[in-house]
Amino acid sequence: MCKVIAIANQKGGVGKTTTAVNLGIGLARKGKKVLLIDADPQGSMTVSLGYDHPDELEVTLSTVMLKILNDGNDCEISVEEGILHHAEGVDLMPANLELSALEVYLVNAIARESILKLYVNAVRAKYDYIIIDCMPSLGMMTINALTAADSVLIPVQTAYLPVNGLQQLISTINKVKRQLNRKLKIEGIVMTMVDFRTVYARDIFEKIHLTYSDSVGTFETYIPISVKAAETSAEGKSIFEHCGSGKVAIAYGELTKELLEHEGE
Ligand SMILES: Nc1ncnc2c1ncn2[C@@H]1O[C@H](COP(=O)(O)OP(=O)(O)OP(=O)(O)O)[C@@H](O)[C@H]1O
């Protein structure tokens, strides 16, 4: 059975794309069939998988979502439509700037929160995992991702205390759960770009564990800060290919295992 995971945090630059890509490829390396969906008009996931000019792609997420918007339940989506196949064994539904226009268009649409879900439902039989990289906002695209997902994984950067932002995100998730997607769960918080050399980061790390490990859930695995990880986004490949023996590759390998343990694997 396919599991759909949204990687969400309305704060920008906290490691959503890096986590989505490396968790997705981590799962593919464990033999899982994985689809990555870029739900961010910046197209960061598309670029970080080596598609350097997302604006030149003919079919992207906005194309298929627009088709669904126009044709409703009668819409026939081919499972292969717009899908790119990455050398490291994952599929990608890319995104580009057109997704911004689509988000504006969504605001007045019927069943506007469920358009991405209709797409996900059309393709999910083919995959074990679908991972959605959300944009840094709590707007209509993120609500669509939360409505389509089975769970949300929340990357949090330990460089500042994110209490207000996290509370807002958790309350949005709870609202979606009550009104649009009763089965939605929080997979857990993953701390990213952790730099234990600073007292500040150690302090935030402990506070997040204390505040959220019982209520929301925190992953035991954390992702350390590393120049190698920062370099990977320009390489078009995963951290496993770029620096397989490094601490960030090891951490994403552990995160993948921890996620699989959530499924009892
Ligand atoms: N473990 C890490 N160590 C060092 N740099 C990292 C690490 N993880 C991610 N980065 C870098 O931090 C920046 C932000 O990461 P990323 O793009 O994954 O965040 P994001 O939350 O998806 O951003 P946005 O909100 O803009 O979509 C990128 O330049 C990325 O290469």
Automatic annotation (TrEMBL):
Domain of life: Bacteria
Occurrences of domain AAA (ranges): 3-186
Pfam families on file: AAA_31
Reaction equation(s) it catalyzes: ATP + H2O = ADP + phosphate + H(+)
Subunit note: Dimerizes in the presence of ATP but not ADP; ATP-binding is required for double-stranded (ds)DNA-binding. Interacts with DnaA.
Family affiliation: Belongs to the ParA family.
Designated name of the protein: Sporulation initiation inhibitor protein Soj
Organism (species): Waltera intestinalis
Lineage: Bacteria, Bacillati, Bacillota, Clostridia, Lachnospirales
